[in-house]
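anyone seen this seq b4? input:
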Amino acid sequence: MKSMQISMQVKEAIIRLKKQHKSIREIAKTLGVTKSTVGYILKKKESTGELNNIERPGSPWKTTKVDDRRILSLVKKDPFTTSTEVKNTLEKWESEQQRSLEERGRLLLCLQFLLPAHTPEGGDVPPEAKERAKGGLCVGVKRCAHLAAMDVNGLSDPYVKT
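predicted toks r here
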């Protein structure tokens, strides 16, 4: 049998009645809770000094946040949507997502972080040095292979000649 969480008002009432020197049996009868619950709450208050319920992890979610939003939008559109329809729609969206992530080729990149360079005060600095002075990330293409044809001419990139 799954246990119910006791409200904060009931917990505070248990503590208040105990301070009035009521017995556990009287407190339980007055508030309509079991004696073991009253004893547990009194023991917890005595040992930790707190009455708050601790957050329990529970079982892991079966759906992602994105799936939850999609399910919500589906049900808002049609409140009589069945679980099978929801499942099929989610699977369809997932397969569309997989197709959009298809591989279009391979790239080998070179990444270099450029630290900001110190420039002399009031000195004349060439434009390249001004760019270097900002710092940033430099990305270079080392090698590419099996690129998908993206141009009407059938080339991967019309500006790059091999």
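Residues 8-48 form one domain. The helical segments are 8-19, 24-31, 35-48, 65-77, 83-100, 127-134. kinda curious what u guys think
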